[in-house]
């Protein structure tokens, strides 16, 4: 049975260097004895080592995101390609980082490397930030003596994938934000504004248009049951996300349905193919065997429909089927992609051809997102115009009618 990993903590230390000069600093380790040993290995005589006190209100700094890891990967790749030693690269990047959490993460990895661990093993101690794909690529680079090259490929891979995610999130955020604001404005009108008009119309004693009566009835219902309406909406969203998180069949059906939605489905398919091609190309360039690579590719695909198909393709490849044949049988990849992979298999340059496929589909995603954004703006304005404008017209129709009578 495997032992549980010992958690590293940050220590502050004071000591003297070889010239007898008093120095101090911080170092991550699993115990004060380990920190003292690492300091002695660096030629420092430790005089005092103690755990760094935790801040009163948490560790400070913002949450570490995928974009932070992408930037860190590029910085480390640049340092290594410039001839800066690995440990010194961590020192420079870590201490120069603005986010205290990211700084702690980098210096913790540095401490593990200084203690004699490989970079891959040091990264593997932080699985929340460095997934299996990342760790395997670094391990392949260390084993093949091409760590600098692989770090550059990892940095490019992370930058490309994060760029695609950012594009899609940006395209979906705008309409979602506008619809939420439209709901809030409608709720305010229903609860506070329309009841005032209804009181005014009661004093007139005149017959109201059907549209106005409908809006007033809806407002009365909203005022009486707004707590239940908001609770139902909140509960629906909570239940939806919980079901998506816990039920694999529901998530599979949902993501399969998303691929068939007009415009959005096309963007999701192109983005998934781009991730598939970019991930597989990066793993191939690192010398990872195809069957092993397919596990990481499935995890990085970002869509359960494609990840399930990729794992099925892996099993077919393990029995001797060509990659292009298994892709064709999945019926999830366009003919152009299959043909590009077939050419790559024939010429022995699959990684190069997959890189071309990734470049093409990443550009396609950019163009599709820009087109969708241009299309969504007038559609959103039309929806807002009908919704808010309809409420305003319904309230002013009786006033116009009475003005005409007068």
Q: What this model shows, in words?
A:
- This protein is mainly alpha-helical and 406 residues long.
- Helix content is 74%, strand content 6%.
- Strands 2-1-3 form a 3-stranded antiparallel sheet.
- Strand 1 and strand 2 form a beta hairpin.
- Helix 2 crosses helix 3, helix 7 runs antiparallel to helix 10 and helix 8 packs antiparallel against helix 15.
- The longest helix is centred in the middle third of the chain and has 58 residues.
- The termini are far apart.
- 31% of the residues are buried.
SSE pattern: EEHEHHHHHHHHHHHHHH
Number of strands: 3
Q: Helical proportion?
A: over 70%
Walk across the major sheet and give the strand order. Answer: 2-1-3
Count, helices = 15
**What is the terminal separation in angstroms?**
90 Å
Chain-averaged pLDDT:
82
Class by helix and strand content? mainly alpha
Apparent shape: flat
Topology (elements, then pairings):
Elements: E1 9-16, E2 22-29, H1 32-41, E3 45-51, H2 66-81, H3 86-95, H4 100-114, H5 119-124, H6 132-144, H7 147-204, H8 210-246, H9 248-258, H10 264-285, H11 290-300, H12 304-318, H13 323-330, H14 335-347, H15 350-405
Antiparallel strand pairs: 1-2, 1-3
Helix pairs in contact: 2-3, 2-7, 3-4, 6-7, 7-8, 7-10, 7-15, 8-9, 8-15, 10-11, 10-15, 11-12, 12-13, 13-14, 14-15
